Amino acid sequence: MNTQTNPQLQLAFDFLQYTNQNVFLTGKAGTGKTTFLHNLKKVSPKRMIVVAPTGVAAINAGGVTIHSFFQISFGPQIPKDPKAPQIINYNNPANSIKRFSKQKINIIRSLDLLVIDEISMVRADLLDAIDEVLRRFKNRYLPFGGVQLLMIGDLQQLAPVVKENEWDLLKNYYDTTFFFSSRALKQSQFTGIELKEIFRQTDQHFIDLLNKIRENKIDEKTLKELNARYIPDFSPHESEGYITLTTHNYQAQQINDSKLEVLNSHPYRFQAEVKGEFPEYTYPADDQLVLKKGAQVMFVKNDPSAEKLYYNGKIGKIVAIDGNTIEVRCPGDYESITVERAQWENTKYTLNESTQEINESVIGEFFQFPLKLAWAITIHKSQGLTFDKAVIDARLSFTHGQVYVALSRCKTLEGLVLRSLIAADSVKNDTTVINFSADVERNQPGPEELIKSRQQYQLLLLTELFDFQPILRNINYMLKIWAENETHLQGNLGDNFRKVLIPIQNEIIQVAQKFQRPLSRMVHQHNDAEQNNELQERVKKGCHYFMDKLASNILEPLNNSGFQTDNKEIRKKISAPLERIEKEAEIKKACLNRTIPGFAIKEYLDAKAKASIDQVGLSKSKTKQPTVILSDLKHPEFYHQLFAWRKSKANELNITISRVMQQKTLLYIAQAIPSTVVELKAIKGMGGTKMKQFGKELMEMLFSYRKEKGLELPIGAEKEIAKAGLDTKHLSFELFKTGKNISEIAHERSLARSTIVGHLGFFVGTGELEIEKLVESDRIAAITNFFTNHKNATTTDARNNLGNDYSYTEIKLVLQHIESK
Known about the structure:
Blueprint: H1 7-18, E1 22-27, H2 33-43, E2 48-52, H3 55-61, E3 64-65, H4 66-70, H5 102-109, E4 113-116, H6 124-137, E5 148-152, H7 164-170, H8 183-187, E6 190-195, H9 204-214, H10 220-227, E7 243-246, H11 249-262, E8 268-271, E9 273-276, E10 288-291, E11 296-299, E12 315-321, E13 326-329, E14 337-339, E15 342-351, E16 358-368, E17 371-373, E18 376-378, H12 379-382, E19 390-393, H13 402-407, E20 416-418, H14 431-442, H15 447-465, H16 469-484, E21 490-491, H17 493-525, H18 533-559, E22 563-564, H19 568-595, H20 601-612, H21 636-653, H22 657-660, H23 663-672, H24 677-682, H25 688-709, H26 717-724, H27 728-737, H28 742-749, H29 753-766, H30 777-789, H31 795-802, H32 808-820
Parallel strand pairs: 1-5, 1-6, 2-3, 2-4, 4-5, 7-18, 7-19, 19-20
Antiparallel strand pairs: 8-10, 9-16, 11-12, 11-17, 12-13, 13-14, 15-16, 21-22
C-alpha cells in the first residue's frame, strides 16, 4: 500500500495493523476512502471480511451485505442486554436464534478485522445486531466480540433509511438512527481519522464552497455564488456530455425514457447473463439494457484492462452499435472506446480446509455491458462517482446530505449547472452529525496516540496469553451444575476436576498474576514488544512453565474424565461449560506453543484464530465416548457393552434410550453382574415388563461376560436364560417345579409368602398345577366339603368352622381349585 505520500492514510493503516482500536475512516467526497479499502484488502496482516449495507455497495466493495453474512432480518432490531442470558422461546420462530453454518461460525470465531463500508447508511440498531452475533460466537464480554472494526464513510453524505413506524420503536433505545448511537460502539473506544486531501476537485475555491455546505455553514454569499450556476431552460448539446442528477428515481427514469424515445435509431436489447448465485437486488447494471445509437451513457465500472480507457461514472455517447458491439465516444477523447461485456463477481467468504485461512470464493457471476443510460441519474446512485459536467435538480431534496452529494460529484464549479435554485432550507444537514463530525476532526490521533495504542494492544495480547481465569470460571461453573444434579450423573468428571481446583489456583492462577506484573513495565520501556529482549526472555520462560501446568492440571483431567446421564437438559448444562473448557484449553495450548520461540503479534493472532476453528467431524466433548465413567466401577467393560446395547436397542425399537432402560439400572447390573434371573430381577429398574422385554438378552450377555472373565457360572445356565423371559408368576412356578416350597421361593425372590401363593394359585386355577402338590388329600376333601355345603361362605368362615389347624393358604388354594372346576 503506497501510503507514504499521505500521512493520514499511513496512520489509518498503522492503527489497523498494530492496534485493536476501532477506526472510523471518514473524509469529504473524493478523498480516496474507497481506494484505501481496495488496497487494504490486498495487504491486510489480519484476517478480515468486508460488508456493506446494500447489495450494490457490497459488490463494489468486493464484499457481502451485512444482512446476508450476519443473517439479520430487515426491519428494526430491538437491542438486548449483551451480558444477560438468552431466554429463547423456540416455539416462536420470531424469537429463535438463526442457525449459522459451521463454516460461517468458524469464520467469525477466527476473525480479526471487520470492515463496514458506507457506514453512513448503517443504522445504530443494525450495528448492535452485528455486535450480538459477534458476541455470540467470539467473546460475549467484549463489544463486537473483541473484533476490530474499520468503519468507512462520510456522514455528510447519504443517511440511514428509517421509516416512521420503525423509528417509533427504536427511539426508545437510541438518540439518533446514525451508527454512532449504537450501544455497543459507545461501550468501545474508536479512533476517528479524517482524510483531508481531495483528489476529485483541484479548484480550492470550489472545495471551500463544498465544505461550507458539508459543514452547514452556508451563508448568503455562498448561496449567491452557487446559484450563479442556475441556468433556466439549460439545453446543452449532446456532444457536451452533461448528466442530470435528480432526487427521485422516477425523475431520472422519465428523462432517460424521453431522450431515448426521440432518437430515430434502432433499439437494441442486451440481456444480462447470470451464473450461480447473484440476487437481483445486487445487480450492478441493468438486467435488460435498452440502447440506441446516439444515446448518452455512463460507464458503471472501472476498465479492468491495462489501458484504463474508462472509469465508473465516465460519460459518453454511443457512436456505433449492433448485436454484439458497442462503441462509445467520450468528450475530449480522440478515439471511441469499443465496449465489451464486463464481469462482476458475487463473493462468499469460506475457510480454506488446508490453510484455515479466510478466502473469498466466487459463488455467482454477472455479465453485461458496463453501461447505463445517463442523461439522468439519481443523487443516491451517484454516490462515489465523479463527473466532468452535471446538471443538478435538487429542488425536491428530502434527506440529509443529498445536496452536498450532488454538488460534490462535479470536478469543477464551471462543470456544474443548476436546473433549480438552491434554497437554504433545501440543504438538509443533521446538527447531531455536524457536531459528531466536528468532534472527530478535533480529536485526530497522531504518532503519540498510535504509540500508546500499540503498547496497550501488545500488553492486552500478552495479558491474554497468560490469563487462565476463563478456564477456571468454566470449571467452577461446570462443578456447580454437577453438584446440583449429582444424583442424575454418573462419571468421574466431577471428582477429577475437584481434585485439580487447588493446584490450578496455586500453580497457575496465582503464578500467572505475579508473572504478569512486570510485563506492563517492560512493554512501556520499548515501543515494540517484539524487539524487547528482556520481555522476550520472560515470555519464553513463562510459556514453558504454563505449558507444563496446563497439561498436568487441565488437559490430563479432560482426557481422563467422562460422564453420562439420561437427562437431556442436564447433559446440555454440563456439556456447554465442558466444551468451553476444552476449547479454551485448546486455544491456550496453541498460543503458548506458538509463542515459545518468542512473542510475535502476527504469529500469536494466527495461532489463536486457527485454534478457534472447530474441526468438522471431531467430537466436541467426552459426553459421546466416555473413557472413564466411575473410578470404583468393578466391570467398566461390561458397562460400555450394556451402554452400546441400549443405544442399539433404542434405534431398533425407535424409542429413546431412557425408555429402553435407565442409566442407573445399567450401572447396577454392571456393578453386580447377576448370575441368576432372580438376582437380575431384584435390581432396581428390572421389573416384570423389563424382564419380559429384555431379560433373555441381558442374561445371555451376562453369562457370556462371566465366561469370558472366568467368573463362576450357575448350574443350568441355559434354564436361567429361558426363565429370564418369564413374567413374575411364571418365574415363581418355575422355581416351584425345581422342588422349592413356598417359603423358600418367597425368600429367594424377596417377596411375601402371600404373593407366591397368589402366583401358584393362578396355575392351580388354570389346571396347570395339581392341587395335591400343595395341599394334602384329606384336607382338600374337608375344605371342599365345607364350601359345597356353604355356597356363599368366605375363607374366614371356612377357617372358623374347620379350626385353626387349617391355614388361610390352604383354604385359598383349594378355593381356587374349586372355582376352576
